[in-house]
């Protein structure tokens, strides 16, 4: 079966025949099997799949923080064989430092990279403004809501203008309305900062709303089961979620998961 819906024009990420096996206490755990995936520069690609299918593992392989067992991963011109400093990463938990203000939390990125602080401060303020946090740059994490904290951590991930943003269920811990707003904030940031986004989610609707393509993974060992092109106009608007075309995509994805035995509806 040809799982790739449309080959991207200019590849940014090339994952070729990648497998990952962990040495577990009870023997080998085959997390990923024979993954082939090409992602274009500037593309927004979401990955959906059942719990334990290897989504986070794949993201960690892309970051270079976890080595793969077989195959090859190239990001840009670089073969990934060690931690890749050219990425921004956002996890479900914001991991902000409680003793530093919002602005200082964003600036950590520059301090770690030993980048000039004055220019970094200007960019940090710009980013905070883009996500409507300009009045909170001196607030400490405990004074911020969950959504505001996660916005700060997105700004921190983007401070050094990474060409690739890796996001592992970044909105999974947020309430539905905050999540909607964060999705819009993220799309605005993507439009203003040319970058490729690799986005993991458990929400089919979120994947369709944000993405150019949605990658469906099978249960463990994770394989690329299907790739769906999302042909919806940008900028995306919340009302689009009621459109027939949008619901056709969510239905198609739901049916794929039913076929994989991930959803069972019998009573
Ligand atoms: N460091 C590790 N050592 C051993 N096994 C691991 C390790 N990391 C992940 N695994 C196993 O690899 C498989 C894939 O895990 P992974 O966290 O990538 O899945 P996931 O799709 O992100 O899951 P979820 O949606 O629940 O977050 C799981 O069976 C997990 O137990």
TrEMBL record:
<dbReference type="GO" id="GO:0005524">
    <property type="term" value="F:ATP binding"/>
</dbReference>
<keyword id="KW-0813">Transport</keyword>
<keyword id="KW-0067">ATP-binding</keyword>
<dbReference type="InterPro" id="IPR003593">
    <property type="entry name" value="AAA+_ATPase"/>
</dbReference>
<dbReference type="InterPro" id="IPR017871">
    <property type="entry name" value="ABC_transporter-like_CS"/>
</dbReference>
<keyword id="KW-0547">Nucleotide-binding</keyword>
<feature type="domain" description="ABC transporter">
    <location>
        <begin position="13"/>
        <end position="244"/>
    </location>
</feature>
<dbReference type="InterPro" id="IPR003439">
    <property type="entry name" value="ABC_transporter-like_ATP-bd"/>
</dbReference>
<dbReference type="InterPro" id="IPR027417">
    <property type="entry name" value="P-loop_NTPase"/>
</dbReference>
<dbReference type="InterPro" id="IPR050166">
    <property type="entry name" value="ABC_transporter_ATP-bind"/>
</dbReference>
<dbReference type="GO" id="GO:0016887">
    <property type="term" value="F:ATP hydrolysis activity"/>
</dbReference>
<protein>
    <submittedName>
        <fullName>ABC transporter ATP-binding protein</fullName>
    </submittedName>
</protein>
<dbReference type="Pfam" id="PF00005">
    <property type="entry name" value="ABC_tran"/>
</dbReference>
<comment type="similarity">
    <text>Belongs to the ABC transporter superfamily.</text>
</comment>
């Amino acid at each position: 079966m040809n799982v790739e819906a449309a080959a991207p024009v200019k590849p940014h990420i090339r994952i070729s025949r990648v497998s990952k096996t962990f040495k577990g206490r009870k023997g080998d755990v085959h997390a990923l099997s024979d993954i082939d995936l090409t992602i274009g520069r500037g593309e927004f690609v979401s990955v959906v799949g059942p719990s334990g299918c290897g989504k986070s593992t794949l993201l960690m392989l892309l970051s270079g923080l976890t080595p793969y067992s077989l195959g090859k991963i190239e990001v840009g011109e670089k073969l990934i064989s060690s931690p890749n400093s050219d990425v921004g990463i956002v996890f479900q938990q914001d991991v902000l430092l409680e003793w530093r203000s919002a602005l200082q939390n964003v600036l950590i990125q520059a301090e770690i990279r030993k980048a000039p602080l004055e220019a970094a401060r200007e960019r940090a303020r710009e980013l905070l403004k883009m996500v409507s946090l300009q009045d909170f740059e001196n607030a400490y994490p405990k004074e911020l809501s969950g959504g505001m904290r996660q916005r700060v951590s997105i700004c921190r991930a983007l401070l050094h203008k990474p060409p690739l943003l890796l996001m592992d269920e970044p909105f999974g811990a947020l309430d539905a309305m905050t999540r909607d707003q964060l999705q819009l904030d993220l799309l605005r940031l993507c439009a203003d900062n040319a970058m490729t986004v690799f986005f993991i989610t458990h929400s089919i609707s979120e994947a369709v709303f944000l993405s150019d393509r949605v990658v469906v993974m099978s249960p463990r060992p994770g394989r690329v089961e299907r790739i769906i092109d999302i042909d919806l106009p940008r900028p995306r608007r919340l009302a689009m979620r009621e459109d027939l075309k949008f619901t056709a995509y969510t239905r198609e994805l739901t049916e794929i998961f039913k076929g994989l035995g991930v959803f069972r509806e019998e009573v």
